[in-house]
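Sorry to interrupt, but I need a hand with the structure work. I would like you to pick a protein and set down its sequence and fold. Please put the record directly below this note.
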Amino acid sequence: MVQHPIDELDASGTLAALESGVGRRRAAEVEDLLLVAHWAALQGTDPRLDPRPVPGLPRPPGGDRLDQVGGEGTPKVRELSLCELGIARGVHTLAARAVTADVLDLQHRLTDTWAKVRDLDAEPWLARKVASLSRHLSVDVVHVVDAAVAAAIAGETPSRVIAIAEAKIIEADPAAHAERVRRAQHRRHVSLTRTDEVGLRCVIARVTAGQAVWVDAMITRVAEILAARPEHDGASTDLLRSMAFGWLARPADLLTLLLESTDIPAAVGDAPAESAADDDEPVPVCRAIALPADLLDALRTLDPVRLRPDAKLYVHLHEAILTGAVPGVARVEDLGPHLLAQVRDLLAHANVTTVPVIDLNQLVSVNAYDHPEALAERVRLLRPVDAFPHASRVSRKTDLDHPVPYRANGPPGQTSSHRSQPLGRTGHRAKTHLGYTCTPLPTGETVWQTPHGRHRLVDAHGTHHLTQDDYTALTSDDPLDRALTRLLIKARTRGLPE
C-alpha cells in the first residue's frame, strides 16, 4: 500500500496543516463567490432589449426578466440565468439564487464585512448568514449591522456574531422590527419535516397559547389511557405521548377510546359563564364534561367506521417484491421508503378503496399538446422526480414538459407517457425560452445542453456530468456510439442501468 504524505505527519505537523488548510478553504470559497458575482454581472442586462425570437411578434409569455434577488441597493439579475448557474455549481436553482443574493448583499450592502471575507479573516458561510438575516433592511440603515459584524467576525465565535447581527438588525430599524413581531404573532401554521430513515416525521405547529394547552392536555389524557393497556407496558412517557398524538388524527377512534375510558356525567345545568376562555389565554385542563343523556347515548352507539377518513396512497414497488425475490421495501409518495408492514399501518385506520394497478409498460399517447389527467397520472408515476439537472423535487405539483418541443403540424402521438417529463416551473421556463437542448434517449435517460455549453445526463440515479464528446456520441444516430458511450459513463459514475 502506498503511504499518503498525510500519514507521515506528526502531531505538530498535523495541526499546522489543518491551520494552513483553513486559509486554503476560505480562499476557494471566496473564489467561488467572486465567480458567482461575476456571473450575476454578466446577466444584468434587461432581457426586453434582446432580439425577439420572431421579429414583429410579441414575446411569448413566461420569458426571462430582471429580478431583485439581493437586498435593496443590489443590482438585478436575469432570473432564468440562475438555472444555468445552478447546473454549473451542481446545485438546485434555489441554492444558486441564495448564493447570488448573499454575495451581492456582501458586495453592495455589507462592504466592511465583505472586506474581512476577501482578506480570509472570516468564514464566508458566516458572512452569508448575516447577509441573509439583514436582507430586509433598507440600504440606508444596513450599515449599522455591517460595522458591528465587521468588527466582530474575525475574532468572535459564530454564535456571538449571529447574536450581534440580530441585535443590530433590531437597532437599525426598531419600527420595522416591531411590525415583524406583530405579524409573527398572527402567523400560524402546521408543517411536517421530511420523513427520516425509519419512517418518522416531526409535526411543527404554531398555535395560540390556549390551543396549545388544550392539545397538550388531550395528549396527556390519551397517553394515560394507553399506559394502562398491557401492550404498552414499560413504554416511556415520550413514546406514549407520541402515540397519543397520532390518535388525534383519528377522531372516530379517539372518541371511542375516550368514551370507553371515561365516566362522563349527564348535564347538571349550563356551565358558568366564566368557564369560557379566550383562545389566546391558558385554560384549566381538568373539568368535568357535562352532556345531555340523550347525546351520551347517541355517542356510545355511534359507528366510528363511518367517521374514518378515506385514504389514497401511492405505493411504488418492484415486481420482484411481489414474488418474494427481494425484501419488501416500497416507496410511498411524500413519505419515502417503507417496509410493507409499515404501509399496512398507514392504512389501518382509514376507509380503503382499491383501484386497478396501472400497467406502466403500456405506451399511451394523445394527438394534442395538453396532457389529459389519465396520461398525466402515468407520467408522474413513471417519472416522479423533477427532470431538470440537479433538481430534487419529488412532487405532483410540477409542469409536464415535452422534451422534444411539440409541433402543431408534427407527427401523431407527440404527447405520450414514455416521452413527457415533469419539470418545475422555473426550469420549464428556462428550457422553453433560453435555448436549452433536451434529448431523450431510447434507454430512458435525458441528455441536456445548456445555452453556454454545459452538458448533463439525468437518469433514475440523478444528474451526471458529460463532456462535449459524451454529449455528441449520446445524441448521435449511431446506436453503437451511444451504447459504447453509455458503458463508459456507467464505468465512470456507476449510475446507469444495465
Observations:
- Residues 5-185 form one domain.
- The chain has 18 helices and 17 strands.
- Residues 264-290 have pLDDT under 50 and may be disordered.
